[in-house]
Amino acid sequence: MEAVQPNVGFVFGLFAAIIITSALLVVTLKNIFHCALALIVCLTGVAGIFVLLHAEFLAAVQVLIYVGAVSVLIIFSVMLTSNLASRRIVQTNQNALVAGFAALIFGAGALLLLKLHDIWPKAGSALPDDNVMTIGKLLMTDYMLPFEVVSVLMLAAMIGAIVLARGERS
Amino acid sequence: MTDYVSTLSIDIGLIGPELALLIAAAVILLLIFTRKADRFATAIGLIGLVVSMVLTVRQWDVKVGGFSGMVTVDQFAVLFKLLFAVASGLTLLLAERYFHAKHIARPEFTALLLVSTMGMMVMAGTTDLIVIFLGLEIMSVPLYVMAGFNRRSLESNESGIKYFIMGAFATGFLLMGIALIYGASETTDLRRIVTDFSYIATNAKLFLFTGAALMMVGFGFKVGAVPFHSWIPDVYQGAPTPVTAFFSVAPKAAGFAALLRIFAYGLKDLGALSDVWWILAVLTMTVGNILALRQENVKRMLAYSSIAHAGYMLVALAVGGADAASAVIFYLIGYTLFNLGGFTVVALLETRAGSRADFSEMAGLSKAHPYLTATLALFMFSLSGFPPTVGFFGKFYLFSAAVKGGFIWLTVIGVMNSFVSVYYYLRVVKVSYFDQIEGRFVPAPLSAGVLFVLIVTAVGTLGFGLFPDNVLEIARRAIQAFA
């Protein structure tokens, strides 16, 4: 593996550039359909970062849920809502400058904090190669109850969506 | 694979109360195609709740954990589970009458209410942050739908969507907080955080603080603390009144159950948080009370009043310690009863055609419904904290714990706020007893279910006020689970 080890910094930078560019496009493009497509690129880039960090499980979940389900849902809603896809939208309002300034201050503050204090706890050892298998085993043993309880959440969300969306009973 | 199975501790009995509600909800959903499903649904829901209560009471003397530490059964959990089940049952009885009158009867409502109650139980019966979070979500998702349940009403739609967006936003804060706490402590189990606290606090203090602050924001939204209260008035006013009644008590109690578990147990040694709670408590009670003064709509007034009450309860988190924690549990028990009672009367009046539950509509109430008005007055006295109602003792225990803890200024501000609140609570009494109306007062017919709700809440408000020591003793024993 050592021989084909790519330059991690370079790959990270590449993904980061993809993420930031597409994220900016999401909030600036005039066509909401294009925004949704840019969002897919952005989320895929995040999945790439996860792979880079050896979090293969998270990467798979990211692709399945965010790229696969959420984005498709957004695109469907755009296409099913009449005339939304062809309309030009304005993504800024009178608060845009203030919000941008606040975001800048917060971002700079967070960066400064991280430069001054080395606060992130370091992982004791590298992740094992079979970390996906470990997660699977944990989900079926220690975390079995939360895992099962999530299904109740799904059920509640499903009933709720049906109740709100279906037509009036005659 | 056998080695994994053997380490599992599956004890279905531990999650009996939750399972009873889930099964009842499932049965309702399966029977939904039948005729008169609405009637069935309420009956099955009530049976499920009673079974759940019985199973919960039987767990009172049990103190065990199960499911690899994901479930904790102790007296704290039992008490809160009972409270949720009672609030849910009373809401169900109230909702049947109200929805019938408003022609929005739908059996799914009962199923959603049961699932939401189950989520609260999950939340109270664990020391694991992941499970607390899941319980909170299972509680919240049905609540969003219930707020928007009256689909023909624009206000109800607005209520649902506002609650959903703000709730989802708050969830983000909470989850981020939990992630940071996990990053600091490498565990999501509060018991392990307590054991290793000194190690964690020295190695990742900043993390711990940031995580705690974000969790404060998340739960602050849920219990309606200022400055995270902006959603409350519109959501409370727009939602169907029985749902509002439920909102104002059960999720608030669940939020405080989680807050107590996390901040009075898990992170109790994290200093300096007390000051933050101090500010939040003062802001919450003052803003809630002052804005309540100017309301012309009773539902909206009660919404602001519920913010103010959350403020009083936050005093306990600023003070800390077993006395304050048991006082806030006592307060929650009383508050659940008299606030539900107050909303029941409002809901009953709102079943009249064209009613919007404004103050002016209450004029002449005492002539048409003398007993109902007396009950309403009792709830208002309890809300404002007059003896011998339970509302008085709730505040009394809370503020004496604060004085004992040396929080003199906080107590002074709290008591002054109570005085301010007397004005708008007694305005309800004044309008319904002394104001004249033109024409005849349209009476609101009582049903057996609503009558039962009124009797339970009124007897509780008075009875717990006459024998407060017994209730406080139960609250004390619940808190001993933290020791």
Automatic annotation (TrEMBL), chain A:
It is a multi-pass membrane protein. The chain crosses the membrane at residues 6-29, 36-57, 63-84, 96-114, 143-165. This is NADH-quinone oxidoreductase subunit J. The keyword Flavoprotein does not apply. InterPro entries: NADH_UbQ/plastoQ_OxRdtase_su6, Nuo/plastoQ_OxRdtase_6_NuoJ. Gene3D superfamilies: NADH-ubiquinone/plastoquinone oxidoreductase chain 6, subunit NuoJ. The keyword Transmembrane applies. It comes from candidate division GN15 bacterium. One of its GO terms (cellular component) is plasma membrane. It is found in: Cell membrane. Belongs to the complex I subunit 6 family. NDH-1 shuttles electrons from NADH, via FMN and iron-sulfur (Fe-S) centers, to quinones in the respiratory chain. Couples the redox reaction to proton translocation (for every two electrons transferred, four hydrogen ions are translocated across the cytoplasmic membrane), and thus conserves the redox energy in a proton gradient. Keywords: Cell membrane, Membrane, NAD, Quinone, Transmembrane, Transmembrane helix. GO terms for molecular function: NADH dehydrogenase (ubiquinone) activity; quinone binding. It holds the Pfam family Oxidored_q3. Its EC number is 7.1.1.-. It comes from the Bacteria. It catalyses: a quinone + NADH + 5 H(+)(in) = a quinol + NAD(+) + 4 H(+)(out).
TrEMBL record, chain B:
It comes from candidate division GN15 bacterium. Keywords: Cell membrane, Membrane, NAD, Quinone, Translocase, Transmembrane, Transmembrane helix, Transport, Ubiquinone. Belongs to the complex I subunit 2 family. This is NADH-quinone oxidoreductase subunit N. NCBIfam families: NDH_I_N. GO terms for cellular component: endomembrane system; plasma membrane. One of its GO terms (biological process) is ATP synthesis coupled electron transport. The keyword Transport applies. Its main location: membrane. NDH-1 shuttles electrons from NADH, via FMN and iron-sulfur (Fe-S) centers, to quinones in the respiratory chain. The immediate electron acceptor for the enzyme in this species is believed to be ubiquinone. Couples the redox reaction to proton translocation (for every two electrons transferred, four hydrogen ions are translocated across the cytoplasmic membrane), and thus conserves the redox energy in a proton gradient. It comes from the Bacteria. It is a multi-pass membrane protein. NDH-1 is composed of 14 different subunits. Subunits NuoA, H, J, K, L, M, N constitute the membrane sector of the complex. Its EC number is 7.1.1.-. It is an enzyme of class 7 (translocase). The chain crosses the membrane at residues 12-33, 40-57, 77-95, 107-124, 161-184, 204-223, 276-294, 301-322, 328-349, 370-387, 407-426, 446-467. The keyword NAD applies. The gene is nuoN. It is found in: Cell membrane; Endomembrane system; Membrane.
